Amino acid sequence: MNQVITLVTGGAGFIGFHLCRRLLDEGDAVICLDDMSTGTQEHVDRLAVHRNLRFIRHDVTRPINLHVHRIFNLACPASPAAYEADPIKTTLTNVLGTRNMLELARSNGARFVQASTSEVYGDPEVHPQPEGYRGNVSTTGPRSCYDEGKRCAESLVFDYERVHRLNVRVARIFNTYGPGMREDDGRVVSNFVVQALRGRDLTVYGDGSNTRSMCYVDDMVEGLARLMKADSPVAGPINLGNPREISILDLARMVSTMVGSASTIVHLPAVVDDPRVRCPDITRAKAKLDWEPRIALEEGLRRTIGFFAERLVVQSPSAGPDRGRGSLGVVEDSAASLC
Ligand SMILES: NC(=O)c1ccc[n+]([C@@H]2O[C@H](COP(=O)([O-])OP(=O)(O)OC[C@H]3O[C@@H](n4cnc5c(N)ncnc54)[C@H](O)[C@@H]3O)[C@@H](O)[C@H]2O)c1
């Protein structure tokens, strides 16, 4: 077979970068398509060392014509701070962007993997969340652009499967973390790690009893790759995430201890519509993909702390007046740090 051409939309972002790298290492020709709204030039530059990488700066809300065999549709800001900053664009990226990428898949006869999210379960009344649970999502709150946008995107994907017989798969991604996250994107792991490394207070929204299940990015990429490659049909969505659940307060304590920081934990008002619990039921992923996460939270955090520690040294060398404040752009008071 000729070389597989794989399109990764959102390829300059956190998960997209790791996914592109993995696909390039496996020998695919990769098209990384990104509008650079939350993606980084550093990721593009690091990918561009591979001769099989082609970067296209493009907004998925506009149609595009390309020759591709496979599409991973990851384009969408994932941090609440980012997706709430332009909520109308977030909805359009999910709905119009997904429609455009599905049309591209249709014209190429390409296999299509959609990056959906655990947010489709909203503030869940069923715990852990199996794929059959239909969710408890607000259509009116500040997060609805993302949650409902992703729900509509799923609906479009399965309509293209029914109407156009497109070969589609939907990954419901749970919280994912690791090296390559932006310091300033406001997600809980990057916030805690950077705050601890800088000796600042760790900000917990509410009492910290809400839970998350953190999946290391290499495990997530493995799950996405298996989902794309699975030759037998994968009917319906599939949860990808780490079922080890931890409270946000315990996560803050863990990061602080691992960094060896003297930081204290401070509590800020709870975030609107923030889910109280979140934990994937990954029975289907185990059965259909023979996949489950391998990297323990301690190990994943160790690698993530190492990544940010190195960047801190590079970015703020014994610097002048800015030292200790603002040079990393960490969103410390944002009401959107949980993700
Ligand atoms: N990281 C997580 O914990 C998590 C959890 C659930 C779902 N997801 C999903 O996984 C995907 C990747 O998430 P991430 O953590 O890498 O986020 P990210 O913000 O780091 O990456 C998203 C990428 O999409 C690009 N993008 C955004 N809008 C675009 C548009 N209109 N056109 C083209 N490119 C656009 C951004 O520039 C960025 O490079 C997203 O679809 C997200 O919803 C992530």
UniProtKB/TrEMBL annotation:
<dbReference type="Pfam" id="PF16363">
    <property type="entry name" value="GDP_Man_Dehyd"/>
</dbReference>
<feature type="region of interest" description="Disordered">
    <location>
        <begin position="121"/>
        <end position="140"/>
    </location>
</feature>
<keyword id="KW-0210">Decarboxylase</keyword>
<protein>
    <recommendedName>
        <fullName>UDP-glucuronate decarboxylase</fullName>
        <ecNumber>4.1.1.35</ecNumber>
    </recommendedName>
</protein>
<dbReference type="GO" id="GO:0070403">
    <property type="term" value="F:NAD+ binding"/>
</dbReference>
<dbReference type="InterPro" id="IPR036291">
    <property type="entry name" value="NAD(P)-bd_dom_sf"/>
</dbReference>
<comment type="similarity">
    <text>Belongs to the NAD(P)-dependent epimerase/dehydratase family. UDP-glucuronic acid decarboxylase subfamily.</text>
</comment>
<comment type="pathway">
    <text>Nucleotide-sugar biosynthesis; UDP-alpha-D-xylose biosynthesis; UDP-alpha-D-xylose from UDP-alpha-D-glucuronate: step 1/1.</text>
</comment>
<dbReference type="GO" id="GO:0042732">
    <property type="term" value="P:D-xylose metabolic process"/>
</dbReference>
<dbReference type="InterPro" id="IPR016040">
    <property type="entry name" value="NAD(P)-bd_dom"/>
</dbReference>
<keyword id="KW-1133">Transmembrane helix</keyword>
<keyword id="KW-0520">NAD</keyword>
<dbReference type="GO" id="GO:0033320">
    <property type="term" value="P:UDP-D-xylose biosynthetic process"/>
</dbReference>
<keyword id="KW-0812">Transmembrane</keyword>
<keyword id="KW-0456">Lyase</keyword>
<dbReference type="GO" id="GO:0048040">
    <property type="term" value="F:UDP-glucuronate decarboxylase activity"/>
</dbReference>
<keyword id="KW-0472">Membrane</keyword>
<feature type="domain" description="NAD(P)-binding">
    <location>
        <begin position="7"/>
        <end position="304"/>
    </location>
</feature>
<keyword id="KW-0735">Signal-anchor</keyword>
<keyword id="KW-0333">Golgi apparatus</keyword>
<keyword id="KW-0325">Glycoprotein</keyword>
<dbReference type="InterPro" id="IPR044516">
    <property type="entry name" value="UXS-like"/>
</dbReference>
<dbReference type="GO" id="GO:0005737">
    <property type="term" value="C:cytoplasm"/>
</dbReference>
